[in-house]
Structure formats: C-alpha cells, structure tokens
Design a protein that fits this description.
Structural class: alpha+beta
CATH superfamily: lpxc deacetylase, domain 2
CATH topology: lpxc deacetylase, domain 1
CATH architecture: 2-Layer Sandwich
Strand content: 25-35%
Number of domains: 1
Low-confidence stretches: 269-284
Order of helices and strands: EEEEEEHEHEEEEEHEHEEHEHE
Radius of gyration: 18 Å
Helix content: 10-25%
Distance between the termini: 7 Å
Largest sheet: 7 strands, mixed
Oligomer: single chain
C-alpha cells in the first residue's frame, strides 16, 4: 500500500492498482457494509477496513491523498492507527495554497437506536465525546478529545482494536475477524487482556474514538462541530454521516486557512524497536 500526494480539492481517494487503477472516493455514497469494520464499494469493487487509515489522515490534518493498494483490504498492522501516523510524519505533510473546506454544523443531527446514540452539534473546532459500556473486564469508559488541539498522535493513534476471546470462534464462523491475532488486537479473557499490558488505561474507548474519526471522514471533509456518541459503533457512525449529508440545511461549507502542519507528538514507545514502517509505503 502506498500513499501519494494529491491535488488540492481531491479529497481522499482509494486506487486499486490490481484493477486498472480503479478509484473509489472516501465518501458516504460509497459505504458498502459495516459490521466489525467499514467497507467501501463502487461498481462492484470493494475496499475493506478503511477506518484506521482514514482516522490517521484526518487526525494528522491530511485532506488530499491517493491511497494505492493491490487488494481489497487495507493492512491492519498493529490494530491501531499509529504505524500510519508515524509513516506520515516521516514522509512529511505539505501545506497547499487552496483553503481547506470544512463541514460546519449549523444545527443538531442525531441517530438513536435503543440505548445507543450519536449526534453532531454546532461548535468551533472538532471535538468528540464518547462513552462505551461493555461486559467485564471493560465496563463503562468515557473519553473526550479536541482534534483542533493537535492531540491525535499522542492520545488516540496508538489505541488498538479489541475483542473477547469467548466470541472468537462464533465470529470466525461468520467469516469475520479472519486476520485477528494477538499481534493486531487486544484479546480479552475473563480476567483482562491476555496479551497486555494496555497502552492506556482507557485504551478501549480511545479506540472507539479512533474508529469514529475514521468513519466520519466519509463526510468527505473535516467536520467543524461537536460529536457525542453513546455505545455507538461503525453502523451508527456511518448512519450519522448519511443523515448529515442528506440534510443540507444542517450544515454549510466553510473555508478556513490551513496552518503549516505541526511536528505532532506521538505516543512514546508503543511499538517494538524496528517496527517503524517505511515512509508512505505499507506492506499488507
């Protein structure tokens, strides 16, 4: 997989080099299916597990990029967005002359499903408040992050995906999590992580924030507003994108100058020595 510079206004575009460079834009119109990951499809061509890379791109302020890959699935790497962030920082980010377009939220848009909820509200910058509640040993966790404060690399990127050991066989029988292992996910047993230690005490909710940032990237532009989520997941994340895009009275396009990309802090030593990927080039 390679990340290539793109012209201002291009957005994030996936390119299947194994299918005559067929392109799929990262937007809500191309959402194919969501369960334990988010997939995109156009004219029968599929791209799966997009959320971690999209999260890293948004978190690092990258608006325009071509993502080349030679198969249908993005690399899971270590189950977080950190290897993507490290590669982006090594390669460098160039500020383009065209002003950034954002989706400025004008009024609340919400999606509810039983005790699950997600909504986006007017607000300056881009902030997320997330609450999760899972069986033991996770329980309830909450987190809030302000992406305008350039905290993504230090506080969100390294949080890994997770799953319960007791659910593993059932999910594999359904054709899901086929690539999951102790190298790319937190495996939870009755007493806690079987492949600890955790990178953060609240790593589980931080990973949900990571996923949400990636899924909301499918709005096609960075959001300017405040997002609140309670026990949501990929399906509700993308449902919010769809509802927001369909309600044109709920938002407007805003043009903001782009500041030079900062040398952002990154979580310290979450990967083994020598695990840093080559700049802008990822192996599956």
């Amino acid at each position: 997989m390679r990340l290539l510079p793109a012209a201002a206004g291009s957005g994030i575009v996936f390119r299947r080099t194994d299918l005559d460079n067929f392109e799929i834009a990262a937007n809500g119109r191309n959402v194919a299916k969501v369960s334990y990951a988010t997939s995109l499809m156009r004219q029968g061509v599929l791209i799966s597990t997009t959320e971690h890379l999209l999260s890293a791109l948004v978190g690092m302020g990258v608006d325009n990029v071509i993502v080349e890959l030679d198969n249908l699935e993005l690399p899971i790497l270590d189950g977080s967005a950190l290897p993507y962030v490290q590669a982006i920082l090594q390669a460098g980010i160039r500020t383009q002359r065209r002003r950034r377009e954002t989706i400025r939220v004008l009024r609340p848009v919400e999606v509810r499903e039983g005790n699950k909820f997600i909504g986006v509200y007017p607000g300056s910058g881009y902030s997320i408040q997330y609450a999760i509640e899972f069986p033991a040993p996770i329980g309830r966790q909450t987190a809030m992050v302000d992406l305008a404060a350039e905290t993504y690399g230090e506080f969100i990127a390294a949080a890994r995906t997770f799953g319960y050991k007791a659910d593993e066989q059932r999910l594999r029988d359904m054709g899901l999590i086929r690539g999951a292992s102790a190298e790319n996910a937190i495996i939870l047993g009755p007493k806690g992580p079987e492949n600890g230690p955790l990178r953060f005490a609240d790593e589980y909710v931080r990973h949900k924030v990571l996923d949400l940032i990636g899924d909301l990237a499918l709005a096609g532009r960075r959001i300017e507003g405040h997002v609140v989520a309670e026990r949501a997941g990929h399906a509700m994340h993308t449902a919010l994108v769809s509802r927001l895009m369909k309600d044109r009275s709920a938002w407007e396009l805003a043009h903001v100058p782009v500041e030079p990309a900062p040398a952002e802090h990154v979580a310290q030593n979450p990967l083994p020595e020598g695990a840093l990927p080559a700049p802008m080039l990822m192996g599956a």
